[in-house]
What does this fold into?
Amino acid sequence: MDTAESVVDKKGASGPFHVNNGPSPRGFHGNGSCCGGGSSPAAPEEAHHLHRGGEDAECNGSPAKRSRLRRRTESVKRNRPRTAQRSNMALSVSPKDTSTSGAGDQTTGPLIEGQPCSTTEPHYRCTRNVVEMCRGTAQGSNLGLSVSPKDTSTSGAGDQTTGPLIEGQPCSTTEPHSPHYRCTRNVVEMCRAFPWFGMDIGGTLVKLVYFEPVDVTAEEEQEEVENLKSIRRYLTSNVAYGKTGVRDVHLELRNLTMCGRTGNLHFIRFPTQAMPRFIQMGRDKNFSSLHTTLCATGGGAYKFENDFRTMADLELLKLDELDCLIRGLLFVDRVSFNGHPEGYYFQNPSDTESCVKKTCTLDNPFPMLLVNIGSGVSILAVYSESDYKRVTGTSLGGGTFLGLCCLLTGCETFEEALEMASKGDSTNVDKLVKDIYGGDYERFGLQGSAVASSFGHMMSKEKRDSISKEDLARATLVTITNNIGSIARMCAVNEKIERVVFVGNFLRINTVSTKLLAYAMDFWSKGQLRALFLEHEGYFGAVGALMELLKTSEDP
Amino acid sequence: MINQFFTCQSCCQCQFKGVGKTRASEIPTLTDAPHVARARTLARRARSVRASPTMAECGGLHSGSRRHTMDKSITLPPDEIFRNLENAKRFAIDIGGSLTKLAYYSTVQHKVAKVRSFDHTAKEATSDELYEITMQEEVTARLHFIKFENAYIETCLDFVRDHLVNTDTKVIKATGGGAHKFKELIERKLGLRVDKEDEMTCLIKGCNFVLRNIPHEAFVYAKHADSEFRFQTTQPDIFPYLLVNIGSGVSIVKVESEDKFERIGGSSIGGGTFWGLGALLTKTKRFDELLQLASKGQHTSVDMLVKDIYGGSYGSLGLTGDLIASSFGKSATADKGGFSKEDMAKSLLHMISNDIGQLACLYAKLHSLSRVYFGGFFIRGHPVTMHTITYSINFFTKGEVQALFLRHEGYLGAIGAFLKGAEEDNPNQYSWGENYAGSSGLMSVSPDMNPMQRARSGTFDMLEMDRLERKLVNLPLLQDASSYIPDTVDLTEDALAREYWLYCFEEALDGVVKRALASQPDIPEAAERAEKFRQKYRHKLQTLRHQPFAYGSLTVRSLLDTREHCLNEFNFPDPYSKIKQRENDAALKYYQKAVQSLEELSWEERQFALVRGVLAGNVFDWGAKAVSDVLESDPEFGFEQAKRQLEERPWLVDSYDEWFERLKGPPHKCALFFVDNSGVDIILGVMPFVRELLSRGTEVVLASNSSPALNDVTNGELQILTESIAAMDPVIRAALGEDRLTLVQSGSSSPCLDLSRLDKVLAMVVRERKTDLVIIEGMGRAIHTNYYAMLSCESLKMAVIKNSWLADRLGGKLFSVVFKYEVPAAGIDSPALTPS
It folds into this structure.
């Protein structure tokens, strides 16, 4: 901890971070805030609590990317105060430094602004025009520069004009002007002001993605308002927020370029129940002064809209959850999971012995049947990014599993419920075909081991009295999972789609369900259907919301 | 063995009420009837009546409770339950998780009234009666199905063994999940070899059987409609359909023909899940209690609704705020113990019903099926589950698919197992009819009634079906057999009419009892039977008052048919036989005179006089109280008086002019005439009319009832009358000789007429003769039924309204005339002209 804190201090004090890189994107974080102190979504008392994850090894993604990063890192080393280096290293959980440094090196390259994602096509052109929106937001802010940091960087880019974009290239400029100045001068349309959040407020969980820019120049750093800084620090240096907020460190996407900025995408979740506290905190920290747009999707975007407005003076940009889900999913699959494929499936799903997890990407993803298992379940037939329909849904979802588990076993959390389920045996609870027929039901080709009646044994008092909580938890899990599998399979057949992609937080740390779904798809379709899963299970809606934030800034 | 059963002779209904009462209270109280207490004592003494632990578990409902001792001591009076066991054979048993269904075939010995011509040449009779009426014993086949709780199984098996005389039976067909668990017990108790049959095969066979043989078997459930039950007309082709059987799990079966079906899917979330999970969550043991809890609960406190997530609706997807987004979604975050049992049970019920409904829809869609029947113990007449399933189906298919339920759903497995065992008798070659007297009917399920009191369990539910002597088919002349509804008014939906007719039938009951007694003056025990009939029918009327849907749509026809069934049940096969005989004899004397006076009229005058004659004759109807009162008090009431009672033209419904115009045209090829009453009606009204048709060159087929109903002329009587008339009238004689006048039986024994259930021979004759005119006479056949029937040929419906209430309704008055001549719209092909 000591080390970590000192690192933070040093980093914070390191001042001109990209001292050689030119002055350009200083306004990036300088979204001006009057509110000092760390901002925390859940529990400020835990701020500065740093975790050292042992994830350095993973941080650089694919070999190719690694080598590229290494080059950048090396150049940074030359140009950078060692302290910064070390500090970044120390922040093991967020190895943004590498990309940042890279960015630093690449400053001279021609940046194409407005790049929303990691594609290399330079179709987002720099323009020299000042974007109205930037100004508009700037005007509203206490510190004019704060809202339009991107302008500054853009302007820099504008100056540099049109070379091909290099992936991972951050916004950078050569002129050390203040953002404010630049903003009014000749700024190119650019991305939104930091901080960049995408939020998906579901029935049970709030999913928050936070883009931590790592290409922050020293100047930017300097001008970054304290408020914004503290948000960044708080979010990136913790893995837990308050009692219930969690950052899924292992999901972090590193060195991601979004909207021309390089950074790390953090994945944070907390219970929807904590929303009021979250909003309260937004008010306490005067989040509204940052003049960022909070892009939110999920039902909570509608439910809490008014609370955000009245309690925290924040306007939400409400987005459709299915739009966001699909957009986010396709994006994450495209950028890959730090160099690894985002998707996976199970080989030999019908054979527990030889069943193995295999990674894959969603090349030619369409059409796909997308099964989103949150509190409830939505099933979509997706034909392209914009062409999809909701086929059906079911109310028997993750919320049902957890709700029933809590009632049946007295557990309180999803983790607890899954832990119990992993130890239980559902056949003590469920009535199998063989329990009724003494063996297979041959007339209909039903195996004796198939479940005939979920919780069927519980009709007998004797068995109710002797059952373990673990068995109950397992049966609940199996029941819900099989049912989702069954409905998904029917939809796939009705829609004539062979690829079924399962997402949603129900699948988090839930190999019992993923394997069961894979098995169910394979077995009942006689191999016709394949179940696919994605590592960032529940976060695609939030990612989609973030993308919308970056998109709207281009096209106000 | 028999002393183990307590039989109470003094209390006519104790076999039901006593049981129900003791079940409700675990501890005997002072308010219990004395015999109940005695029953308990007997039960305690009874040898080995307690179920073994295995069985108790199987029984599920009653495991480990003291009152079961009571359950074993139920009264089983032989004339009420397990009837006609003496000749029973072809046993089948379907043992489910909680209910056992026993099926057997038996024969019933009945008195039937037969008419026989006196041999007048031999002068053996001194009287001037045309024919004699004899009571004969006739043996008919009947199927018995009895449903009872598994807890009673030992008692019932003992009872069956003790009353079974027929020793030929060696095998009992068994199906259902509990069959193998009770195998040993059944074999030991009955001494029969248990022969297991596949459950699903039995279910499908049973389903096909009831759909084919029982009118109004299927219904749609609409909780908030005027009538909760909307019964479906029998389809000429019942295939294909989807059967969703919700037992402990769910099986979804596609049925394409009698022998071709396939389990296309299923789900493990079924009735067992509701019961098992419900028991865990609410600590409530019994399935019925769980349903009761559910019916009182509010699911919104447990479920996460769309509005809980969105604050309102999810507009872009058209999901309203009240939809459940996540079942039990609130229970993870709420305070522990914060939910009531009722709310959890309700939530669970919704969860399971919605899930099953959704799957059923997906399968129906995949296989393009629109008829989806739901069955299994989860449904079994429970309004709560029928409602939630219906709701779910409507939601998921947006009304494209209707959830259909079956009145005898609980019996399907037993019926199927029975059919498997009776294949050599080939029951499917016959038509069968539900016996209203011997069947319990669909239980009341009004939501305001306590489901516990209304629950099936605890009583014995029965279904009896009579083998009909004739195979019944559609009239080939129906314009659209699949949309044909015989009945004009559905009393299930028309509360006002229902009230009136129930009252009307109750009022008329004394008269019917009197008639019944009078028909058997020399039989001493007739009075006792007549009294039993009165009780039985009054009880049926009371039941129907509360449960109008008990036997399908309540109609005037069903009320009349129920009365006939009850009369037959107590061996009053033909209460009006004597009256008919007297009236026939009297009317015959006037025949020649009547014909003669008609002959004297001009052609135009004659045509009108013939119609008036039929109408006046139709006044003579003992089924109509207004008339029977007159006939009762004035035996001399005559044809001419009746004519004077008739309404003058224009009649209430009057298309005589069109008919008259038609008569000027070419003669009809063949007329099918459904006749009504005996006496004046048939002899002085119908016969002259028929005579005229014959004279015009039209062949005539006279269709009359196969068995007696009221004073309607039966086929047997009509044969004698026609011969007698032929002896007087050369026109009739010639027509008979040349086979231009044919008598057929309708296959019915009802005062009303269901054109979708007619004797196969009749249908054949109709086709062969290329019938192009159908005449339906009488209030029962042309107004209560078939008033709106659309035929593919010309039709004439004639009736006199002999009921002032009905006249009022139709905008007329007593003795208003309905004369409805219809010609089908051009371009409709007559299916009758296509021999099949």
Observations:
- DSSP finds 21 helices and 17 strands in chain A.
